[in-house]
Amino acid sequence: MVDHRPFGHTGVRVSALTLGAMNFGRRGNPDHEDSIRIIHRALDEGITSIDTADVYSDGESEEIVGKALAGGRRDDVFLATKFHGQVGDNPRHRGNSRRWIIRAVDNSLRRLRTDWIDLYQAHRPEPGTDFDETLGALTDLVRQGKVRYLGTSTFEPSAIVEGQWIAQRRGRERVVSEQPPYSILARGVEREVLPVAQRYGLAVIPWSPLAGGWLSGRYHAGLDAPISRRADRLPARFDPRLPANAAKLAAVDKLSALADEAGLSLIHLAIAFVLEHPAVTSAIIGPRTLAHLESQLGATKVTLSADVLDRIDDIVAPGTTLNPADAGYQPPALTDPAHRRRGGPSTPPAAVTR
After folding, report:
1. Which of 56, 120, 149, 219 is labelled catalytic?
2. Tell me, what DSSP letter sits at residue 223?
3. What's the pLDDT at 213?
4. Are 174 and 147 within 8 A, CB to CB?
5. pLDDT over 70 at 352, yes or no
6. Distance from C-alpha of 305 to C-alpha of 313, rounded to nearest angstrom
7. Of 127, 191, 193, which Cα lies nearest the Cα of 157?
8. What is the distance between the terminal CA atoms of the chain, rounded to a whole angstrom?
9. Cα dist from 291 to 117, 216, 251, 268, 287, whole Å
10. How far apart are CA 267 and CA 218, in angstroms?
11. Is residue 55 within 8 Å of 85, Cβ to Cβ?
12. Which of 49, 108, 184, 249 is a plausible cystine mate for 221, CB 3.0–4.6 Å?
């Protein structure tokens, strides 16, 4: 893999694919040695960045990544992790407050077996917590040498801009990247998030370019059962009997036919589409098995013609997310009617759904 891209304006360059570690651990692949083999294979193939989170299998993913990078591999990897979601059974072990961030980063450093994190990201917004509170704590971590760069994941464009203003006006470290959901089936970020990232020179590292497995080539219209291991937790995204998901299956059939005509696998078509956008730095792939990894590596060598890109636009219009549940985050102002009525409750924290 020779395609390396600038990580925003930081001067760092990363591989066009990032290895996502969400599927390493009991929620995906519980075999640590097998997961480590997948990580080593990805590094041997030229992937230079790994993304995980403390919430993935309650820290087990970070532990696996830490073991995989032991023995001299850590220095050559751009290592990213995230905080925000609840880790374990204690409801206080979560959030974007200074109190939790200071504890969370030390926990992640211990699990990852490292002295520093290259990119530390807020996994979701937390409307009840002042963003300046969060950036103040993260700024201290950068100045202490525990963290190199700051990022966000699945933030709305207004929050992305707010973070830039806070950094400038309050002397905080600047957020340098955003990690949004982006695939052919979930194109909502094309409306504002990607243009805003370009305007402010942010790196963009999209998650789920295969739309949670919908673009893996295994599924087709007519399915009458949930398609993913995550279906029990997230039926709104994975139950094909729901109208929004039936629309995704219909689009997948058309995209599969287009991939066949272009002489590509649907996986390569999907990942190449995400990498084609000029705002995108590196697409996060999340293999659970070595076969999954092997099926995705070659996508960086694919260049989609203008005709193929136009036909994708005809199947799923630019800026369209076929199922709103795939947006990754909905603010409480939309999800809780009480927030639209006088006397409603204070804003609750957001939930991480991946």
Report:
1. 56
2. -
3. 94
4. no
5. no
6. 13
7. 193
8. 27
9. 29, 12, 25, 14, 8
10. 10
11. yes
12. 249
Q: If you write DSSP's letter for every residue of 177-192 in order, what string do you get?
A: EEE-B--SSB-GGGTT
Structure-token pair, residue 127: 């409307």
Can you give the pLDDT at residue 225? 61
Q: Is-contact 17 297, C-beta < 8 A?
A: yes
Structure-block tokens of residue 339: 């927030």
H or E element at residue 204:
strand 203-204
Instruction: Retrieve residue 287's tokens.
Output: 């293999």
- Report whether 121 contacts 81 (CB < 8 A): yes
What's the chain's average pLDDT?
94
Structure tokens at 347: 């804003």
Residue 216 structure tokens: 């893996």
**107-151: per-residue pLDDT in tens?**
999 999 999 999 999 999 999 999 999 999 999 999 999 999 999
User: What are the CA-CA distances from residue 97 to residues 82, 178, 241 (Å)?
Assistant: 14, 19, 39
Tokens encoding 170: 């309050």
* CB neighbour list of residue 269: distance below 8 Å, 6 or more residues apart: 184, 215, 255, 258, 259, 262, 302, 304, 308
Q: Are 195 and 277 in contact (CB under 8 A)?
A: no
Determine whether 56 is an active site residue. yes
